[in-house]
Amino acid sequence: MSVLEAEYFVERGHFLGKNGHINGRLVKERALNDPHILRNLVIQLCERTVEYSPSLIVGQKNAGARLAALVGAKIGVLSLQLNKPSVDTSVAPPRISLAPLHKERVVVVEDNVTTGRSIGQIKQSLSGYGADPVAVVTLFNSGQATAERLGVLNFEALLDPEITCWPADTCIPCADGTPRSLGMLATHRTNG
Ligand SMILES: [Zn+2]
Question: Would 92 be classed as within a structural domain?
């Protein structure tokens, strides 16, 4: 049982999400910006991570990489920070020279998994080095992700904020006449 409840990190309401309307908005800052809470969560992430006997911890910038570094330092395993793929094609991607990683037991640490898009990016980056992660361990699962849906062998989440997503045209709160929460577009923007 978690010492911290998922509900603490969610603002409930009727929001416009990236892929439809959602019944709550995850406030990751409550986990990542409070040293006491973060320490507790990292300890729990470590407990999940060591079960896979990793030889390398990987996280994608920014929050995922930060958590991966904290977990790696705590369990004494090297951590690697991946950049997000560049969306600007006029800029050449940075050349990273890494030894092949196919012998490594790679565990990916994430802050939040929603659509699985970033997991797809990480898997693609790793496959360039011959590596396939043995597990993905995340702080939050806010999109009902599963190992199968993510295409990974193992998937674990510490906290499930139970954020439900409806397509805009069949949204249940809209059908019930629930007004949409105010200020949501601004907060979405600032939280990326
Ligand atoms: Zn709606």
Answer: no
Q: In angstroms, what is the span from residue 145 Cα to ligand 1's centroid?
A: 21
CATH code, 184: 3.40.50.2020
- Structural domain includes residue 159: yes
CB atoms inside a 10 Å sphere around CB 182: 9
User: Residue 94: inside a domain, yes or no?
Assistant: no
Domain ranges, residue 56: 7-85+100-191
- Please give the residue that has the higher pLDDT: either 97 or 158: 158
Mean pLDDT score, 119-140: 93
Q: How far is the C-alpha of 34 from the C-alpha of 39, rounded, in Å?
A: 8
For ligand 1, the distance from its centroid to the CA atom of residue 141, given in whole angstroms, is: 21
Residue 17 alpha carbon to ligand 1 centre in Å: 10
Residue 184 Cα to ligand 1 middle (Å): 13
Q: How far is the CA of 29 from the centre of ligand 1 (A)?
A: 25
What does residue 8 show for φ and ψ, rounded to 5 degrees? -60, -25
CB-based contacts of 31: which residues, under 8 Å, 6+ apart? 9, 37, 38, 41, 111, 139, 140
Total number of domains in the chain:
1
pLDDT in tens, 46-76: 999 999 999 999 999 999 999 999 999 999 9
User: For residue 2, is it within any domain?
Assistant: no
pLDDT: which is higher, 10 or 92: 10
Residue 119 CA to ligand 1 center (angstroms) comes to 27
User: What is the 167 CA–ligand 1 centroid distance (Å)?
Assistant: 8
**What tens digit of pLDDT does each residue of 147-171 get?**
999 999 999 999 999 999 999 999 9
